[in-house]
Design a protein that fits this description.
The complex is a heterodimer.
Chain A lengths: L4 E3 L2 E4 L5 E6 L6 E8 L3 E9 L2 E5 L6 E5 L5 E5 L8 E8 L8 E2 L3 E5 L1
Parallel strand pairs in A: 2-11
Antiparallel strand pairs in A: 1-3, 3-8, 4-5, 4-9, 5-6, 7-8, 9-10, 9-11
Chain B lengths: L3 E2 L4 E5 L4 E7 L6 E7 L6 E7 L4 E4 L2 E6 L4 E6 L8 E9 L4 E7 L3 E6 L1
Parallel strand pairs in B: 2-11
Antiparallel strand pairs in B: 1-3, 3-8, 4-5, 4-9, 6-7, 7-8, 9-10, 9-11
The chains are: A mainly beta, B mainly beta.
Chain lengths: ~110, ~120
């Protein structure tokens, strides 16, 4: 069974731009969660989607948003990028009935210049 | 407010010996715990988990122990192998409030297994 895939793997943007990251979950997994990993803050939960609806949200500003499609693929968007948004963005998928058991993709490394 | 703490940033163990990684938590609502292993430039890989109704779970070389009264869990790797060298994260979730999907992670412990 293929794992979680994320595209792109690396991205360089400049301050003020916006970015969209994509995630394809493991087949059969309908819950998708997003996390941000930085050296200072560690791994922090952004939000979770299943059935195309946001189910949980972490403590991030409204510049961070996401959506999920009917095939369970998910995208996250960051608008008006700031230098502090440079991070590894990780997507995780899970079965809806076992949402706490998450399987992570390789991440997208975002660098904001 | 760090609700999940891994107080040892690094650990060095000889090949063949036991590696013990520790994790403490403060939120008494946490009821499910997981350990992940992470290599550089890769996402975390799920290793093993434990529900709060158990005090031990074993999977091959990996065993997780949970002490609810002390709010402490540990991961034992026996025997340790060079391929186990990675950063290990413990994570916790709170099923009770409908936020089961929100994993709270510790800061990680870098394990180095030496020959």
């Amino acid at each position: 069974k293929a794992g979680v895939t994320q595209t792109p793997r690396y991205l360089i943007k400049t301050r003020g731009q916006q970015v969209t990251l994509s995630c394809s979950p493991i087949s059969g997994h309908r819950s998708v969660s997003w996390y941000q990993q930085t050296p200072g803050q560690g791994l922090q939960f952004l939000f979770e989607y299943f059935s195309e609806t946001q189910r949980n949200k972490g403590n991030f500003p409204g510049r961070f948003s996401g959506r999920q499609f009917s095939n369970s693929r998910s995208e996250m968007n960051v608008s008006t990028l700031e230098l502090g948004d440079s991070a590894l963005y990780l997507c995780a998928s899970s079965l809806v009935e076992r949402r706490n058991e998450q399987f992570f993709g390789p991440g997208t490394r975002l660098t904001v210049l | 407010d760090q609700q999940v703490k891994q107080n040892s940033p690094s650990l060095s163990v000889q090949e063949g010996r036991i590696s013990i990684l520790n994790c403490d938590y403060t939120n008494s609502m946490f009821d499910y715990f997981l350990w992940y292993k992470k290599y550089p430039a890769e996402g975390p890989t799920f290793l093993i988990s434990i529900s709060s109704i158990k005090d031990k779970n074993e999977d091959g070389r990996f065993t997780v122990f949970l002490n609810k009264s002390a709010k402490h869990l540990s991961l034992h790797i026996v025997p340790s192998q060079p391929g186990d060298s990675a950063v290990y994260f413990c994570a916790a979730s709170d099923k009770g409030t409908g936020t089961a999907s929100k994993l709270t992670f510790g800061t990680g412990t870098r394990l180095q297994v030496t020959l």
